[in-house]
Amino acid sequence: MARTVAADYEEKAVAILDAAARVFAEKGYERATMADVARAAGFAKASAYHYFDSKEALLYALLDRSLDALLGAVTRADPGPAAAPDERLARVVEAYVRAFLDRVSVATPLLLHLERLRPEWRSAIKQKERRLIGAVAAAVAPVHDALPPPVTAFLILGAANWTHYWFDPRGEVPPQELARGIATLFAPATPSSAG
Fold first, then answer.
1. What is the pLDDT of residue 59?
2. Is the distance from CB of 64 to CB of 128 less than 8 angstroms?
3. Rounded distance, CA 129 to CA 118, Å?
4. Which of these, 104, 98, 92, lies nearest to 190 by C-alpha position?
5. What's the pLDDT tens digit per position in 107-144?
6. Alpha-carbon distance 81 to 25, whole Å?
7. Residue 25, burial from CB neighbour count under 10 angstroms (0-12, 13-18, 19+)
8. What confidence category does residue 56 fall into, taking pLDDT thresholds of 50, 70 and 90?
9. Is the pLDDT of residue 149 over 80?
10. CA distance readout (Å), 157 to 38, 135, 170
11. What is the reported pLDDT for 108?
């Protein structure tokens, strides 16, 4: 007999993932427990296991969701090869930084634990990461030729990812201004207008 899925299953799973992102950010992946995550989400520990059977499953789901959000933001912002090259790169970089700052900065520290994932999950995350790098590299290629486009894409995204460690959204530079500024650094000829 097939197991029935509650109407609010997806909503509760998202609540647990959001709680896991907070707990992993506060305690670190190594020290966080499923009990910590369940408590932060307002669930009993056994209930949390109903949605994610391990901390590894939470790690995978968070990375998968984060990379989907980043790839989606970049894809939606990319005006394509017909656009002016600097404008295209600026839009792609700004969209990445905005998505990263708004929702998915959790990806940076969690990617450091990629080796904790079982091989098939690690491979799936690496594949999405390659798609993201490819999308940025396509916008980089006509603008920067000092290095191969994927290398330059890694450099740009690495610089953006590092903001997780130092950027204070309540500081003197608002998040949207930071996103525009980073885009302008990498595509200086055309100020970005990603929205």
1. 92
2. yes
3. 17
4. 92
5. 666 777 888 899 999 999 999 999 999 999 999 999 99
6. 38
7. middle
8. very high
9. yes
10. 32, 11, 22
11. 67
| Mean local confidence (pLDDT), 183-192 | 73
Q: What number is the average pLDDT over the span 144-159?
A: 93
Answer for the pair 130, 121: CB distance below 8 angstroms, yes or no: no
Q: What number of residues does the chain have? A: 195
Query: Percentage of residues in the chain with pLDDT exceeding 70?
Result: 89
| Structural tokens at position 176 | 């949207």
Q: Please give the pLDDT value at position 105.
A: 60
**Distance of alpha carbon 53 from alpha carbon 34, whole angstroms:** 9
Above 70 in pLDDT, residue 193?
no
Nearest by Cα to 51 from 84, 103, 3, 90: 3
* Planar angle of CA 154, 136, 67, nearest 5 degrees: 80
Domain ranges for the chain: 1-53, 55-186
What is the residue-wise DSSP string for 5-69?
A: --TTHHHHHHHHHHHHHHHHHHH-TTT--HHHHHHHHT--HHHHHHH-SSHHHHHHHHHHHHHHH
Q: CATH number of 1-53: 1.20.140.10, 3.90.226.10, 1.10.10.60, 3.40.640.10?
A: 1.10.10.60
Fold entry, domain 55-186: Tetracycline Repressor; domain 2 (1.10.357)
